[in-house]
Fold this sequence. Notes:
By secondary structure, the protein is of the alpha/beta class. Helix content is 32%, strand content 23%.
Amino acid sequence: xxxxxxxxxxxxxxxxxxxxxxxxxxxxxxxxxxxxxxxxxxxxxxxxxxxxxxxxxxxxxxxxxxxxxxxxxxxxxxxxxxxxxxxxxxxxxxxxxxxxxxxxxxxxxxxxxxxxxxxxxxxxxxxxxxxxxxxxxxxxxxxxxxxxxxxxxxxxxxxxxxxxxxxxxxxxxxxxxxxxxxxxxxxxxxxxxxxxxxxxxxxxxxxxxxxxxxxxxxxxxxxxxxxxxxxxxxxxxxxxxxxxxxxxxxxxxxxxxxxxxxxxxxxxxxxxxxxxxxxxxxxxxxxxxxxxxxxxxxxxxxxxxxxxxxxxxxxxxxxxxxxxxxxxxxxxxxxxxxxxxxxxxxxxxxxxxxxxxxxxxxxxxxxxxxxxxxxxxxxxxxxxxxxxxxxxxxxxxxxxxxxxxxxxxxxxxxxxxxxxxxxxxxxxxxxxxxxxxxxxxxxxxxxxxxxxxxxxxxxxxxxxxxxxxxxxxxxxxxxxxxxxxxxxxxxxxxxxxxxxxxxxxxxxxxxxxxxxxxxxxxxxxxxxxxxxxxxxxxxxxxxxxxxxxxxxxxxxxxxxxxxxxxxxxxxxxxxxxxxxxxxxxxxxxxxxxxxxxxxxxxxxxxxxxxxxxxxxxxxxxxxxxxxxxxxxxxxxxxx
Length: 639
Ligand code: WTA
């Protein structure tokens, strides 16, 4: 029997509205989206809601012309929102800055002019590698304004990961800062950019925001200070087609290099603005805090764009949520009167570990609603969040979605009608989303049974494609089940119709909410001169979800030693970034593989976790029992 928590009466009443809207979104799709697309302004109205003639390349809001920067800024500056605070920025050190809608508008225009003056134009690709400072959303909005396609790279990635993304996105411009802060230390971003550029095909411009005042090198005729290129004035927003690209954001898959997920100018804003409204029902006077990093999709959609599209006031925090003390998050909530908090299960579990005394030392009564995102939330963390932080009165909005989906797909909906919540379930699909849980053959599994979650029809937030690789888009997302969007996660739909998201069905890891491909770490390892082969998998971790474990073999002539392992970890940190460093690296005599060359990650993991099933033949699809037995011996022989 699953536990259900009856919600406060005031949240409970309207499930009928949810069902009405949900059903309408499926039965009268055109009517529904004609109405919901009005959440943004269009320079030229679209003449058709959906063109699905080239499945699975779906096009939304055909021939509609619009601009993200216009919708986030210009349309508000002639209204009473002109002087409303758009962002309250708080630094780790406790500095704060506020910027109003009008202030942001001016700054975005000034930077857009600076970009144009450097010769950057519509369609050009721009990589943004920045800390969590106000210039980051300014840079994204300035690119959006002139139609340049931005590619934000999380500042926790290292030089090789950055170089690969600069190359793959074909960026000729990089926007960065001298440095950023993390737990009191300065991250030398500009120096990392210099190294990445040396590894890349090269760029024409680097724009540097002065932030940490660390010493950097500036290369003549390539590097410019942000302060020197901005120019006050007005830049007319480009009239972009609904299906022109807005941004590329790289994310990890099971195979190959990271995929550049491409989102557009029409469907994406319509989707994220509607989903933020449906899920959290933010009011004009609310203070919204999405405590993610802008380098990931959560930051793009729900720190930068959707809150501005809805004209909200957001908190933006640069720094770690437990620094300088474990009460940092609660301190910010109290100080700024945060009404809605959206964060990750990893953050909740980390803060839970520090104990109740930290939240209890703060007045959290401004909170009305709590959100979670990015990974499955375990019931213990859910209860702590609900009881200790929300004082049993804030509904928990568990939002399930992905980089590729643009915005929330399955989530309770405070605006349309919230169901009784079940801790650990993201509840029901949002309007427009028609999920199903399939078995291996594409048949619906029975309620209560585990299967693959798919979405059976397109919705406006679905990515346009994988940048430069239409084939990969089809293969990854629409091949396992033809023309159904394959999310890559296991799920259960229970007897009440609630969805339970159970995590990845593939070898993608979630480390502290960050999506990491096992293959990326393996590639990073085998690119080192000492390492011949490597296998990487995730070890369940009570706080971070997964931690990275690696097994590797050395090339002839190298001997294992603790120093070598430390050195390898250090190099992974530089090349790929601190988030990709394996917690443990085990050197073994062979990395077990099937005859067809597939690394037996599951066998290695089972041996490592001491969870070998009696029937080993179920462990790896392509491997024979003999091969698995041999693999077990090798790994047990261990280091
Ligand atoms: C996982 C993050 C359970 C899932 C927004 C998905 C979740 C992957 C939830 C996408 C949730 C995200 N419950 N699992 N509420 N939200 N996931 O692209 O495995 O970084 O496929 O987007 O995170 O990760 P991504």
